[in-house]
Design brief:
By secondary structure, the protein is α/β, with parallel strands linked by helices. It contains six helices and nine strands, in the order βαβααβαβαβαββββ. The protein has a single domain, classed as 3-Layer(aba) Sandwich (Rossmann fold), CATH 3.40.50. It is 35% helix and 28% strand.
Length: 209
Amino acid sequence: MLLITAKTKVGKTTLALNLAKDFLDQGKKVLYVTYEISSKVLFWLFAGIPLRKNWRELTEQDKKAVLERYGDRFFIEDSLTLSDILAYVRVAQPDVFIIDYDQLILTSGRYESEERRISHIVSSLKGVALEAGSVFVLLSQVNDDDKARWSREKEFYASVHVHLVKEEKSDIVRYEVKLNRYGPSGEKGTFEIDWNSREIKVFHEVGIK
């Protein structure tokens, strides 16, 4: 499970779309479940990255080219319930599934609090990722203290946790690897986003704190 946290409008979705492209370019199958952005708009945002064009300038021919390149391995779904996601992953067996983002997922049953509901969502998604052998990418907004919103257990379930902060009046986003169960935590660096195409252009590693 890769947890990506940040405040709103920092670049979580942009980073996730670039990750999706990287996985697709490796021949992987990717499922992207979107809640705040419609699947149609999300596809256009994605298509701008490999074509290096603003999504508002894309033509139907551009759309066809991207579909021919990725369409048989890239699946975008709107507003799936938790049970829908679990069934989808079990049947389709994507190499990667991206959830953007967790607190908007509808669930059945009653929970003591929103904290417990979100914890159940995240543990269920990590469980099905382990079952299917998939990489699970979760995008999460943060509270004022920069902790994952609604459930700090998200940080417990994560295998890798990356936190993003956007520099003011800049295309630069700072990142910090807050947790890495496969190696040392604390790596910091920056990456630059071309906001016209949403392509991530350059990573600069600062080092380990």
